[in-house]
Amino acid sequence: MKEELAALGFRVVAISPDRPSKLTDSLKVKDLGYSLYSDSSLAAARAFGIAYELTDAEVARYKKFGIDLAEASGHDHRQLPVPSVFLVEKGGTIRWVYSNPDYRVRPDNAELLEAARQAARPAEKP
Question: Which of 33, 43, 50 is nearest to 86 (CA)?
Fold first, then answer.
């Protein structure tokens, strides 16, 4: 699918709430197929409107599974980003957004490619 998106003028970028040193293992994987960036402060997530505050129970649940969010991000902001996909033009205009708080639910490839095809078309003039 990366090739189809590239043919439409898009490139795949992933933004993680983990600090850069935590992303090292992911970056060691040969040919991830996309660029991986850190947003450990969640400044980008807040700017995109997808950061949400965790409850005490959610923080405790993560710790129960061995996940220390403050240690992973290097910040104690108790926030995470809602899993989201954005199609952004080169000029910075967001043309399509998919967000779902349930990280297990993602847009399927056909839906994403159709959105990319629509977003890649020049805007119609009135």
Answer: 50
Domain boundaries along the sequence of the chain: 2-119
Which uninterrupted H or E stretch holds 88? Answer: strand 84-88
Question: pLDDT of the chain along its 126 residues, tens only?
Answer: 888 998 998 888 999 999 998 888 777 776 777 888 999 999 999 999 999 999 999 999 999 999 999 999 999 999 999 999 999 888 888 889 999 999 899 999 999 999 999 988 876 655
Task: Write out the CATH class of domain 2-119.
Answer: alpha beta
DSSP codes joined into one string, 5-52: HHHTT---EEEESS-GGGGHHHHHSTT-SSEEEE-TT-HHHHHHT-EE
